[in-house]
Amino acid sequence: MATKKLMKGTAARMGVMKRVSLVFKAKANKALDKMEDPRETLDYSYQRQLELLTKVRRGVADVATSRKRVELQMNQLQQQANKLEDQARKALGMGREDLARAALERKASAQSQLNDLQAQYAQLQAEEEKLTVASQRLQSKVDAFRTRKETIKATYTAAEAQTRINEAFSGISEEMGDVGMAIQRAEDKTAQMQARAGAIDELMASGALDDAVGGNRDDIQAELDMLSASSDVESELSRLKGEITAGAPKQLEGGANGNSQDAQGAQAPQAQTQSASIPAADRPAEPQDGEG
Questions:
Q1: Average pLDDT over residues 147-165
Q2: Which 3 state secondary structure label does DSSP give 227?
């Protein structure tokens, strides 16, 4: 029983540790993804490829150097073998077969070394050719990657600039958000100060607050000021009424004069008609020219 409990406890702890490790890796991956700049990553990859290309070229140079060294050794052995063969001929010409045999034995040894060096030379030459081809291919890939890298960097920079512009226009960027919040706070403070100033003006006008600079105002003086203002309004209203009332009789007088003239005009034809109906003998004598 104790063993089973211990195993269960161990499994539970391992499960918790795995979960903590998973959460930590997820958080770290998210933080790294946020911090990562694709342009820097591409530049770093290109730098690593250049380093690899440099190593391949150095390897080609090392192999070529080894091949050249083997070639020099081969030439020396070939010269030595030719010399030993000449010595063997001379020894035979002099009747020294033993010297000729020793020279030929040395030549055989030199020829054996020469064969080994020739095999190494062929191997090094093949390796050099492989590395040369690989270096050329890697150079082509590095050049293509450099072109692609610059294209991606330019596209990313343009997209980043466009995103910032759009965020600025829409107001969702951090900088514009801070500016918008600052403007909102300034407007709120301005409205608050305006409301406070208006409230203080109303309180001072109503007498609830005293003017510390102009002195204290009592309730009686405030009431008298209000009555004086009302009296001024009433007097102005009475003046306007008087002007309106004074203008009305003038209009009536003008109308009466017009009526009297119309009446006189109407009576004149009537008088002419009455005089025409009176006989000429009964008419009064009309004054002659020159008489008063």
A1: 89
A2: helix
Kindly provide the b/e burial profile for residues 223-234, where b requires at least 16 CB atoms within 10 angstroms of the residue's own CB.
eeeeeeeeeeee
Beta-bridge mates of residue 215: 211
3-state secondary structure of 211: strand
Report the alpha-carbon distance of residue 148 to residue 155 in Å, rounded.
10
Buried b (16+ CB within 10 A) or exposed e, 179-198: eeeeeeeeeeeeeeeeeeee
pLDDT of residue 286: 47
Give helix then strand counts, H and E, for the chain.
5, 0
Using the predicted structure, report yes or no on whether residue 29 has a pLDDT greater than 70.
no
Tokens of 215: 């002195």
CA distance 268 to 144: 124
- CA distance linking residue 113 with residue 102, whole number of Å: 17
Please give the full DSSP string across 55-105, using - where no structure is assigned: HHHHHHHHHHHHHHHHHHHHHHHHHHHHHHHHHHHHHHHTT-HHHHHHHHH
Distance from C-alpha of 275 to C-alpha of 267, rounded to nearest angstrom: 12
Among 107, 77, 104, CA closest to 88? 104
- Yes or no: say if 163 and 176 are a contact pair by the CB < 8 Å rule: no
44-168: what CATH class?
mainly alpha
User: The tokens of 240 are what?
Assistant: 């306007």
Per the CB < 8 A criterion, the answer to whether 160 and 50 are in contact is no
**Confidence class for position 263, pLDDT limits 50, 70, 90:** very low
Check residues 121 and 165 and name the one with the higher pLDDT. 121
